[in-house]
Each structure stands twice: as C-alpha cells, then as structure tokens.
Amino acid sequence: MDPSSLSNPSEAKVDSLHLVLTVDFAKSCLAGYVDVVATLQNDQVSELKLDSNHLNVTGVTDLSNQPIKYHLAAKHEIFGTAIVIEVPQEQRGANKTFTARVHYSTTVESTALQWLSKEQTAGKQHPYLFSQCQAIHARSLVPCQDSPSNKVKYSAEITVPAPLTALMSASSTGKKVDGDKITYTFDQDIAIPTYLIAIVVGHLESREIGPRTMVWSEPEMVDSGAYEFANTEKFIQTGESLLTPYIWKRYDILLLPPSFPYGGMENPMLVFVTPTLLAGDRSLENVIAHEIAHSWCGNLVTNRFWSEFFLNEGFTVFVERKIIGRLYGEDMFQFEAINGLKHLKDDIDQFGATNPLTALRPNLDGIDPDDAFSSVPYDKGFNLLCYLQSLVGVTEFEAWLKSYIAHFAYQSITAEQMKNYFINYFTEKGMADAIAVVDWQSWFNNPGMPHNQVAFTCQLAEQAKELAKKWIATKGDGIESASDFQAFNSQQTILFLDTLLVLTANDHLPVDAIEKMDKLYHLTETRNAEYRAKWYSLCLQSGITRIQPLVAKFLVEQGRMKFVRPLYRELNKVNRELAVSTFTTHRNFYHNICSKMVAKDLGL
Ligand SMILES: CC/C=C\C/C=C\C[C@@H](O)/C=C/C=C/C=C\[C@@H](O)CCCC(=O)O
Ligand SMILES: [Zn+2]
C-alpha cells in the first residue's frame, strides 16, 4: 500500500487514461474529462479510488455520459482528496473492466502546473504552460492513481489557442486546426507511472539533433539548445551498450523557461531541462546523460514507493557516470563521484546527520516527498552501487546491472527485490562469500553519510584540490598567474570551488584574497550557472558585500531549486532583508514547488 496515495490499485487497478482537455490561459486552467479504465482485482471490489488535489470535479459518468455514483473523501492536507467511484453492481467481478469518465478542471492551486504570462517568456508574445508531476503532483493535473506502484498507458486530446504547440511525454499522433484552436493528439503505449505524465504548451520551435532527438524550445533558445545537447545520441547509444535497447522510440528534449525548478525531469520521450544548462561549452551535459539514464533506471525499472527513490536516482546517477566514464575516461567517473560526495555531505549537514530523512530508504508515512528531497537518494544510492561493485568487480557488476534492468523492466520494485536479485545472482556465480559482508539494513536504514565509503581517486581532482589548498595556505600571496586555473575543465573548476567552500566554511578566506582570486580568475563575470552558484556562496560566506545584488539578480533570473534554495539560505544569513524582499517580490516567478520550499527555507 503506497503511503503517498489515497487510491486503491490493489483492488481496482487503473490500466489506462484518456485525457480530453482544453487549455484556458485566461483562467489558468485545463478543463474537460479523463476516461479511466480499470481492472477489478476480485469479486468484492465495489469502489474505484483515484487521487486528486486542487481539482474541481464536476461529475462522474460512463462513456455515454450517464451518471455514476461517486463522492469526494475528506481532504488530506498533503495527499489531497480521494475521488471514490462506486462500481455499479452489474459491473463487479474479478478481472472485469470498469470505465469511468471524470469531468473536471484544474485550478490555479494545481501544484503540477506553472502558467507563464507572455511577459515571463523569452519571446514575450505568447503565454506558456508546463507541468512537473514528480513526485505526487500528477493528481493536481488529472484524477489518477498517483502512485509509482501502478503503471498506466495514456492517450490525450489537447486543445490549445492557435498558434501554440502542445507536447506531452508521449508520441504525437495528430494535429487538427479549427479556426483559432488547435487540437493535438498523443499516445503513450508503454505503461508508465503517473509522475511521468507531462505537458507543455507554448510558442515552440524544434531542431533535429539526432536520429531520434529534436530539441524543442521557444525560438529564442532553440539553436543554443541544439548546440549544447549535440552529444545526446552518443549518450543514448552508450546507455544501450551498458544496459538494454532503448525502448522509448524518441528522445526529444524540451528546453524550458528559466523558472523550471529542476535541472531536468526524465519525462519519457520528452525530457524537460532547465536553460541553466546552456553554458555554451557543453560542460553541463552530464545532466542530459543523467536524464537519458532514467530511460532505464526509473522509467523502465521504477521505485514502487517514494521511500525507494534511490532505486530511481542512485541507479541513474551510477549509469550517468558510467556513460560519462565510457565517453570521457574513467577519471571522469571518479571525478563526478568526488563532486557528488560534496553535494551529499552538504545535504546531510543541512538535514542533520541523524535525521531519518537522510536514510537511503526513509519512512515517508505522512510526509510530502518534496520535503524529503535531497541528494541522498542520488549520491548515497550511487555510493551503495560503487560499494557493491567493489565487492564483485566492475565487469561482473556491469553484467549484473544489465541483467537487473532486463529482469525488472516495466515493473515497480522495492529495495528488497533489488537486494535479493543481487544476492541470488552472485550466489549462483559462486560469489556468496564476497557479498556476505554487505550490511544491507545499515545501508538502507541508517541516517547520515554511508558507512562503507569507497575511495575515489582522480589526478585531475587532486590538481583542483591542490590549487584550492594553495589559496587557503597562502591567502593568495605569491599566486600571480591564472594559467593553472584556466587549464581546468568544468569539473575541475567546480571541484576547486567546492574545495574552497568546504575548507573555508569555518575559517573564511580574507576579503582581499577573494578579491585577488576574482581579479585573476574573473569568476564574478562567469555565465556558467554552476560556477556562479558556488562562487556566490563563497563570496557570501566570506563577507563580500558587493556580491549581494548580483546574487539577488541570479535568484530572479532562474528558478532551479538546486541553486536558489542554498543561495537564498546563504543570503538570508548575511542580509535577510534583501533575501526576503527579493523572494516576496518575485515569488510568482517561481514554480509552485520552488516557492513552497524557499518560503520554508526563509521561515515565511
Ligand atoms: C527520499 C526522497 C523521496 C522521494 C522524493 C521524490 C521526489 C521528490 C520531488 O521533489 C521531485 C523531484 C524531482 C527531481 C527532478 C530532477 C532531479 O533529478 C534533479 C534535481 C537536481 C538538479 O536541479 O539538477
Ligand atoms: Zn534523476
């Protein structure tokens, strides 16, 4: 039973959804109906329960629009309102199909949706709508069994104002122009968890960058996106060589407006990515590798519950770094791992090392998954896989991983199933002794940093760390050349800044040392979002007051939580007035999820 859902797939399992919706930008809502097709799991089942949140349900009928009895259960503050639909007596019975049409509209409170006025877009000519359903926001887009334990096929008919384009995480199957309206049709014939349902409507153009990849965005960014993501096909092919064939047909990329709250969201067939990836040198393409890796880890083999989120993200980070390692050398696998450890430690420090939410498999009963989100499932999950790999060897572990994906494809599984598959696989290989040392329960349930930490080594990383330590030791005295810093690749630059942040957290660099570093390295001028976020943090913690207005500007240029949440917290420490005024003035710029989390961070 999924503690994050109020639906009943173990009794009446939804197999497919058909959405018929009209997009109304004037009212900021989607209105229409969804046909829900379910299979009754036993003779006694009398109700179909669907999740909903912030929806206006106007009725439930059969496909002939004849009314069907239903009621709305009491609203749960976090998980929303269950729609309880009565299965007519004559339609009951094990393995019988029951179909209901739920007439509804979304509301301005629907947390899955962000509506942008034309002024908030790059082109300033047309409004824009996009969704973000992970973890439990799909229920505010469409009544559904909003649990990753249940996978559904879906199709849709979406009517929008001309000349806008609608896209979904599905195959586009048609477009019909009718005066000032356009109806787009879609079909997703591979069953997916509802958190992967996605929609975007806007003034969009596309550029083909590979045999199965288009980049979509507003015209103003589409060429930059085509350049930045040019290695996509190589990443997909590398993923296929590591794992199994890519089954999703297309891999299109949607480059969103800057308020998109995440680096990327792995919506199948149409991955959503932030424009903060547009570094101009493809240096942040690891996020594309990450989202591609989700095509196997998460989208094909799915965490059954949100408490098992590391099965999605830890495996994805591992495959992402394997892809990067295959293409750019093992050093880069090691490098990404070192960078990830810093992110993991920051998040565990932020939550507190004994906080149960820093367990790999936290108990999320009664907890909004958004509130539990951190890099723990990503990098602690990654470190578990590196530890397991260290016990059996790279070749054997990669063979297991390929077998694991093939075995559990199209399923939603638990950590216990993953563990048992690992144990059985290597026991059959005669390696039971090698893996007997694994303390699974500590890995799954203990809070804080991992107890069996694999050591990552990388010469490139040492160079970056050494330069940071040199600045700390000398406070910049004797450092007159920028050539070593200028020779760094993107990951080295990030690690250089991370090392400074870690090693000066309690013993800040003097202001004149930071100013000298800036004169040499011109970090204040960088347009690379990763560098900016880290440089601004370093300057804020070192008492560089001139940076504060630049931080405020960055905070309202983009809404990626990875950047805005830590920077709002840092700015709040040194200038609460500026932090609060910046946030309250621009609160509507951010996606609902982001504004909710930043408000909590600022104690508002
Ligand atoms: C232990 C946590 C359990 C459940 C959390 C599940 C989902 C949390 C919800 O907030 C959705 C997260 C979506 C993340 C999407 C993309 C990330 O992989 C990237 C985030 C970091 C970045 O911006 O690069
Ligand atoms: Zn991910």
Automatic annotation (TrEMBL):
GO terms for biological process: proteolysis. Its cofactor is Zn(2+). It is found in: Cytoplasm. GO terms for molecular function: metalloaminopeptidase activity; zinc ion binding. The keyword Cytoplasm applies. Residues 459-602 form the Peptidase M1 leukotriene A4 hydrolase/aminopeptidase C-terminal domain. This is Leukotriene A4 hydrolase. The active site is at 291 (proton acceptor), 378 (proton donor). It comes from the Eukaryota. Keywords: Cytoplasm, Hydrolase, Metal-binding, Metalloprotease, Protease, Zinc.
